[in-house]
Amino acid sequence: MEILNTFGVDIKLLIAQVINFLIVLFLLRKLLYKPLLSALEDRKNTIAKGLQQAEEGRLLLEKAAEKEKIMLQKAEKLAKKLLDETKEQKLLLIKQAEEVAKNQADRILKEARTQIVYETKEAKIALSSYVSELAVQFLQKSLTGLFSEKEQHEIVKTAARKIKQKNN
User: Fold this and answer.
1) Count of domains in the chain?
2) What is the DSSP string of 101-121?
3) Residue 145: count of CB within 10 angstroms of its CB
4) Residues 6+ apart with CB under 8 A from 143
5) Any idea what the Cα angle at residue 80 is, between residues 74 and 86, rounded to 5°?
6) Which residues have CB under 8 Å from 75's CB, separation 6+?
7) pLDDT tens digits, one per residue of 21-79
8) pTM above 0.85, yes or no
9) Beta bridge partners of 144
10) Structural domain boundaries enclosing 39
11) How far apart are CA 161 and CA 94, in angstroms?
């Protein structure tokens, strides 16, 4: 203890300072260190929880993006399929419409030809009748003065009969 006195250390003061230090240490530990550690631990847990939630959110976002990608691919395939089917239906409808139009045109053409044949026959008959009348009139005028009226009548009657037979 003499060494302590040599250096000017007072034992009572040293013991008092150690006791004060231990009291301050105890008080700091109870009042400040534990709440500070608790707050730091809470903060650490909150940060860890936030990181975990962020990771979960990132995973959910990735899953949602993957689902969206799959849905877009399915929608694209479906749209392509519908477009292809629509194109096929369009081509089929066009083909059917062309067939119907061709059939109608053929039918109209056939009816027109039939009508032309009928009208041609009617025109020939009418023309033949008109020409026959003209021939009979011409014959009557030509025979005037050459034959008697009875002979003229007989000749015209015979000529009319022959013309009629030729026309039929």
Assistant:
1) 1
2) HHHHHHHHHHHHHHHHHHHHH
3) 7
4) 151, 152, 155, 156
5) 135
6) none
7) 999 988 888 888 888 888 899 999 999 999 999 999 999 999 999 999 999 999 999 99
8) no
9) 147
10) 2-167
11) 61
